[in-house]
Amino acid sequence: MELDLGNVVDTVTVMLPIPAPRPYSYAVPQGMQLAPGDFVQVPLGPRLVAAVVWDESDDEQAVDPKKLRPVESKFDCPRLAPEMRKFVDWVAHYTVSPPGMVLRSVLRAPAALDPEPPLDGLRYRGGQPERITGARRRVLELVGEHFDGEDYLAWTRSGLAHAAGVSASVIDGLTKQELFEPVKIPASAVVAAPDLQPASHRLSDEQTVAAEALVAEAQTGEFSCTLLDGVTGSGKTEVYFEAVATALENNRQVLILLPEIALTTSFLDRFEQRFGAPLAQWHSGLAPKMRERVWRQVATGQVRAIAGARSALFLPFRELGLIVVDEEHDSAYKQEDRVFYNARDMAVVRSSLGRFPCILSSATPSIESRVNAEAGRYRHVKLTSRHGAASLPALSTIDMRAHPPARGKFLSPVLLDAMKQAVGRDEQALLFLNRRGYAPLTLCRVCGFRFECKNCSAWLVEHRFRQQLQCHHCGHSEPTPEACSNCGTLDHLVACGPGVERLAEEVDETFPDARIIVLSSDMTGGVSRLRLELEAIAKGEVDIIIGTQLVAKGHNFPLMTCVGVVDADLGLANGDPRAAERTFQLLSQVTGRAGRAGGDSVGLLQTYAPEHPVIAAIASGDREAFYEREIAMRRTANLPPFSRFVAMIISGTDKRETESHAQALKKTAPKAAEIFLLGPAEAPMALVRGRFRYRLLVHAPRSFDVQAYIKDWLQAAPRERGGIRVQIDVDPQSFL
Ligand code: ADP
Ligand code: ZN
Question: Is the CB of 266 under 6 A from ligand 1?
């Protein structure tokens, strides 16, 4: 018998960015060589989609290769590294999501799969034009200056015109006379390569010990996770820059995750000062073209160091060798959309799959990370004092029962007095209130009607400056009415409670000569305006800053010596198991803004419950006491990280159907003795963007395989009909 080799068709496993439970099989066309990690284009229904050749796995179903559709083409792009493929599978497994939905985060810049096209350029060939003019002379002088011994430098047409200060038609005239020849200029790097000179300043003894520990980890090239735990201003950034330098010296790429990358100019400046080149950046604010270039250059290895928001974890690194998670406790690391993941935790996983170190840095570490450090799973490197002359602010509470504000006002005379002193010394004061707008609630004095969002369970927030009532959950806004929409009475609407705009009004009355600024995420002008305002503050062009949590993060205000927390109790009221931790972190970060440049400074907390253990711990400045107490409480109450939660959020547009789906879902839960099922209950945010929400909570011991449990459950679950959606949130951060 003869073998009919012509009929043997090669097949390949391909992961597509779609919510399918596993990769698909495709036929490999004659002559195409494919290996796992290759980026390919494959047909899917009537479309062609970008996808990745995946690793074979055991549970693949055999399909008749002749029935398979062929791979359309292979991209000219470096392969996705094996540890990235493992990472995608790992995240999918942990979050109980389809792996293709995780892969979507990798394929965020499809145009980058093709090589960057070279630019059209011109190169001077020598010689003189028939007729010389002033403009022509300027061009020829410029190109003549740039000669590398062999060739003249190539320019783009517009680049040359701009540099010589002439119009492009001058260049065209010279090109016509064949003084220039067309050439291709290779696409340039998005950032220059970092320069590995040693740091210019000396580290303190404590910093040196910490830096040596981190450098040693970076040197081994093995996986480890270190919690870099030090008060604000203790030099954590300086210290981890040393580990960054080591990884770069060893020819590895470095990723620094930041919670609010768009706002951290001062951080980017510091990196540039230390490494002589800017950091590449990855965040949602990048222009599409830039995104593509950054993605591509991370894949080719041209970008060596990059700072990014959580999605940067899914960039196609070639030789990643260090991840730093700055402000590791920040809740912005949690993605709560489609695939629910915590980038801090996934950074540790990514490091372990890639066998390199991970550094988690924070002045107020998460309870999880502290527990991991205490259990020896993470190394614990501490910095206990502020660098140089800077000392931490003296913290105290203001008992609002004893020192109440004036009628209809929100600032205690004690706080106003401290602000007066700071401003009188030409220093700055900061008021912190985590409430945007003018007032969190508007009601009618005649009938008691409260203005509520039609799509969400939330009050409409008055923004007086824009003369709008806004919902902070769905973005709905309406003009502030003159009459009550319930009883029609004119001019009887009252604002209840303070927002930052209302505080600004109060401060303005008390300090008519002071320069006041309100910083919140909804100020007009967006990120670029905010950057300018932050610079103005740093330069001392502002006396009093009133801000939401936007001001709590990482900014360095050298003149700030007085920080007032307007409502320290605000975060403690809700039933969230992390309320104490969150309040501690936020208030410590805010008060940590003061005194960073030395001299005396104060942090004052307005509270109606100064004896509350969390408030007392912050005011005492005894962070270790806070951690000890909070960890003990979590252990006794068997709360995370000593146990595990998985939330299921069931949402739909019809309330009764959504509730009955939630009930039916609960009935199909597999029996397991170790598991507690709570709910379904109406979510605290029972209505968001017109969708009704119910929550089920799975409470499991740490050792229990919750992923397998949820997978089994979803197999048995009732079909999701009529727009009902069930979202899985492993390790939920938010309980709303
Ligand atoms: P953290 O990250 O812990 O808040 P930073 O690294 O931002 O602390 O340091 C706080 C400030 O002190 C920064 O302005 C930094 O440049 C400065 N600083 C820290 N360590 C040193 C040092 N060894 N020499 C000079 N300046 C330092
Ligand atoms: Zn709304």
Answer: no
The reply to whether 334 falls in a domain is yes
The 10s digit of each residue's pLDDT in 463-472 is 988 888 998 8
- Of 490, 488, 453, the closest CA to residue 473 belongs to 453
Kindly report the pTM of this predicted structure: 0.88
Quick check: CB of 233 below 6 Å from ligand 1?
Answer: yes
Summarised one tens digit per residue, pLDDT across range 44-83 is 999 999 999 998 876 556 677 778 899 999 999 999 999 9
Grouping H, G, I as helix, E, B as strand and the rest as coil, residue 665 is helix
Ligand 2 center to 651 CA (angstroms): 15
Pocket test for ligand 1, best of 387, 556, 589, 593 (most atoms within 8 A of CB): 387
Whose Cα sits closest to atom 4 in ligand 1?
233
The answer to whether residues 331 and 255 belong to one domain is yes
Q: How confident is the model at residue 262 (pLDDT cuts 50, 70, 90)?
A: low
Kindly state whether residues 273 and 344 are assigned to the same domain.
yes
Identify which ligand lies nearest to the alpha carbon of 455: 2
Contact 422, 561 (CB under 8 A): yes
> Residue 528 sits in which domain range?
394-435+498-633
610 and 681 together in one domain: no
Q: Phi first, then psi: what are they for 421, rounded to 5°?
A: -65, -45
pLDDT tens-place string over residues 410-431: 999 999 999 999 999 999 999 9
Domain assignment present for residue 371? The answer is: yes
Q: 386: CA distance to ligand 1 center in Å? A: 8
At 298-355, the pLDDT tens digits run 999 999 999 999 999 999 999 999 999 999 999 999 998 889 999 999 999 999 999 9
> In this structure, which residue's CA is closest to atom 19 in ligand 1?
235
Clarify whether residues 627 and 647 are in a common domain: no
- Do 147 and 81 fall within a single domain? no
**Cβ-contact 608, 569 below 8 angstroms:** yes
Cα–Cα dist 98/24, whole Å: 13
234 CB near ligand 1 (under 6 Å) = yes
Considering every ligand atom shown, identify the ligand nearest to the alpha carbon of residue 686 and give its number. 2
Residue whose structure tokens are 């602010």: 393
3-state secondary structure 87-135: HHHHHHHHHCCCHHHHHHHHCCCHHHHCCCCCEEEEEECCCCCCCCCHH
238 C-beta closer than 6 A to ligand 1 = yes
| Number of structural domains in the chain | 5
What atom in ligand 1 is closest to the CA of residue 363?
Answer: 3
**446 belongs to a structural domain:** no
CATH number of the domain residue 155 falls in: 1.10.10
Query: What's the pLDDT band for 630 if we cut at 50, 70, 90?
Result: very high
CATH of the domain at 691: 3.30.70.600
